[in-house]
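Lab channel / #folding
Pinned by the channel admin:
"Please post every new chain as: sequence first, then the structure tokens as a reply. Keep commentary short and put observations after the output so the thread stays searchable."

First post following the new format, from NK:
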Amino acid sequence: MATLSPLSVPLFLSLLLLLLISAFNLADSQSFIGVNYGQVADNLPPPSSTASLLKSTSIGKVRLYGADGAIIKALANTGIGIVIGAANGEIPALASDPNSATQWINSNVLPYYPSSNITLITVGNEVMTTMDQGLISQLLPAMRNVQNALNSVSLGGKVKVSTVHSMAVLTQSDPPSSGLFNPMFQNALRGLLEFQKDTGSPFAINPYPFFAYQSDSRPETLAFCLFQPNSGRVDSGNGIKYMNMFDAQVDAVRSALNAMGFKNNEIMVAETGWAYSGDSNEAAPSVENARAYNGNLIAHLRSMVGTPLMPGKSVDTYIFALYDEDLKPGPASERAFGLFKTDLSMTYDVGLSKTSQTPSTPSTTPVNPSPKPTAASWCVPKGGVSDAQLQANLDYACSHAIDCGPIQPGGACFEPNTVSSHASYAMNQYYQTMGKNQWNCDFSQTATLTSTNPGHDACVYPEGSP
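Reply from TO:
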């Protein structure tokens, strides 16, 4: 049997140690890989079961859209980082009354911390693109009050405060070097970014190559979105060749931050994912595409290569989503983003299990979408739809960069002040803004297209024309 020379022993031990560390890091939870835990569903497993599931994976962080105490408690002593959220509807109270922020921290953080590893509080979700100027103006005061409440119990710096943005806050993103925030948001964003610079909290953004492919369903775009072999896209501004859409979108945000002078503000990807199923007229969703995107994204993050403008590190990324949410309105794809089924089995394997770290990523050919309507059309609710479903449709539409100002008090379409009337306006706005495709007027099969203009008096409904 061969023996090691004295000089080779230290080298051998160093290599062995490196291999052991690498193996440990791969099998252990990875702090830069997170998952979104949405709860718009009526069939979710108990929080304790979810905690056990997460511990069996390399997922290092979980983002909640609220602050469900049962879930937070179930994650105690797991080491998993937890992001909790204050809803858009809570912002006015948090902004106007410091005591409200104190009560929020007393109710949602102090009973669980530090056993439950709460690391971040997101105040609001995609507030900027609601176009609600009142809400936008209240966002920074709300964040400051939450931060002050954390400081008062010595948690400032331990638990950060941020808010989450849609990619629609950018008015320009292609090429990535030209990334620029929409001028209409820049004043509000500057205040937020100064706050985040001072407190060290991340700028949270929701990049979705899934939606980029829906608007450009060429095969070469699919490969670019799925991290699959492609010819790449050269940034005409700096000559960098991008090989995937995720890096391009994240670097567009980096460029936008740099352009405003915030070169050191960190970026967090609060949501990104790919639906595994959808309506027959949706080009993007399939199990193959979802496995390819999420599996290759995870491999990309694990490589620690980073993006061209932020090399050598992985941006904290929260994949959407842990489970399907069967009560979400919108096209079928909105209810088919889950990495796991509610019986805790994998929807498809992307290498998150600690016993299976290498997913397969087959290529696929997208389904051709149905043609757009060829005559003027408006999207309205079907008859007999419940107010609860209409309210869900209203909330969904107004959270997706739709101008819902006209149905606010004093707006041209506020009257009649009914859920049905407001939902009708918002659903049509969503349809017109999102591309006037038939699947943009689905809302869980509660909407239909009409050739009769539903506008009335001074309330003007935008027209869908071919």
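NK: Residues 1-27, 358-371 have pLDDT under 50 and may be disordered.
TO: also worth noting, The radius of gyration is 23 Å.
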